[in-house]
């Protein structure tokens, strides 16, 4: 198992409705910019060791949090493998509190943010709804739309029906249709990366820390997330700082057409889009021939502006 680049500090804070949120940081001993990593659905900061080490080596202090209901943070249902949320805004409030009470007091030279997948949607809504000190943002395969197995109106109708059934019969929130608990997929069946070594590293982490394992989402998570995706695109022009949006051309998880609509609807002077045609969803964990150009593009974008 690889080691963290420095003495990683892990702690907790109470998010909305007193849900315990686990966060971690690697803080430089000298003045430094801060990189805030906002991970995707089902992930933990533990998965981001290589990414955190990379940015720490470049001179950034690195901050990460595990979203409510996943990772090492407090789960929201009795079945800890259900990916659940009561209100998507809770993710945003948790992120805002994290930035305001954990990151800002350390007085970094610049505050930068990188959001992946669901983390990209959370970051987008944060920028659209909160006063913030963030200077620049990278959205990697952002969840601004979700690839669905049927037309969205039908999916919403079915999910809403099951959610009402659960409430009527006072049941625990149910998985989306076809949903299930955590399953370890073989590499050949994965939609995340073409890098066998990095995929195996994912698997090893979830084996070593079974408490971070998460299965499919609930119907309420799906409804809340679809609504948040729509607001991300609808209110794209509310973002007032530079954003680099990175698309994976072979993504089968998030809907790239929604990201295209987001860029079209935004202030085009502030949004830059790059597409990596052969990449799968996990741009930061792809084969090196893809990952390195992704990192190069991010680093170029984040360079201090004269």
Tell me the number of strands: 8
Share of helix, binned: 25-40%
The CATH superfamily name is Alpha/Beta hydrolase fold, catalytic domain
**Biggest β-sheet strands, sense, barrel:** 8 strands, mixed
Strand composition percent: 15-25%
Entry keywords:
8 helices; Rossmann fold; about 300 residues; globular; 8-stranded mixed sheet; alpha/beta
Describe, in plain words, how this protein is organized in 3D.
There is one protein chain. This protein has 8 helices and 8 strands; from the N terminus they run E-E-E-H-E-H-E-H-E-H-H-H-E-H-E-H. With 306 residues, the protein is an alpha/beta fold. It has a single domain, classed as Rossmann fold, CATH 3.40.50. An 8-stranded mixed beta sheet has the order 1-2-4-3-5-6-7-8, sandwiched between helices.
Itemize the secondary structure elements and their pairings:
Blueprint: E1 9-14, E2 20-26, E3 34-38, H1 49-57, E4 61-65, H2 89-103, E5 111-116, H3 118-129, E6 136-140, H4 152-168, H5 196-208, H6 219-234, E7 243-248, H7 256-265, E8 271-276, H8 288-302
Parallel strand pairs: 3-4, 3-5, 5-6, 6-7, 7-8
Antiparallel strand pairs: 1-2, 2-4
Helix pairs in contact: 2-3, 3-6, 4-6, 6-7
Concise synopsis of the structure shown:
It is built from eight helices and eight strands, in the order βββαβαβαβαααβαβα.
């Amino acid at each position: 198992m690889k080691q963290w680049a420095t003495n990683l500090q892990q702690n907790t804070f109470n998010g909305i409705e007193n849900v315990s949120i686990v966060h971690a940081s690697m803080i430089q001993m000298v003045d430094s910019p801060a990189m805030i990593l906002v991970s995707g659905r089902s992930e933990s900061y533990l998965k981001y060791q290589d990414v955190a080490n990379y940015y720490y080596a470049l001179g950034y202090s690195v901050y990460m949090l595990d979203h409510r209901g996943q990772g090492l943070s407090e789960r929201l249902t009795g079945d800890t493998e259900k990916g659940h949320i009561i209100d998507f805004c809770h993710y945003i409030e948790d992120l805002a509190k994290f930035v305001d009470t954990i990151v800002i007091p350390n007085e970094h030279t610049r505050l930068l943010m990188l959001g992946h997948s669901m983390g990209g949607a959370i970051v987008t809504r944060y920028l659209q709804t909160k006063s913030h000190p963030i200077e620049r943002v990278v959205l990697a395969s952002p969840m601004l739309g979700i690839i669905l197995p049927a037309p969205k109106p039908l999916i919403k109708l079915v999910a809403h029906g099951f959610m009402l059934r659960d409430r009527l019969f006072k049941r625990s929130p149910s998985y989306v249709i076809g949903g299930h608990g955590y399953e370890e997929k073989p590499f050949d069946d994965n939609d995340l990366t073409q890098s066998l070594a990095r995929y195996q590293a994912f698997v090893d982490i979830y084996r070593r820390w079974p408490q971070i394992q998460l299965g499919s989402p609930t119907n309420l998570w799906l409804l809340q997330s679809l609504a948040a995706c729509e607001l991300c695109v609808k209110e794209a022009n509310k973002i007032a700082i530079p954003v680099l949006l990175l698309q994976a051309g072979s993504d089968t998880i998030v809907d790239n057409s929604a990201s295209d609509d987001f860029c079209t609807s935004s202030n085009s002077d502030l949004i830059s889009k790059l597409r990596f045609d052969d990449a799968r969803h996990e741009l930061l964990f792809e084969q090196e021939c893809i990952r390195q150009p992704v990192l190069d593009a991010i680093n170029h974008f984040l360079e201090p502006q004269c």
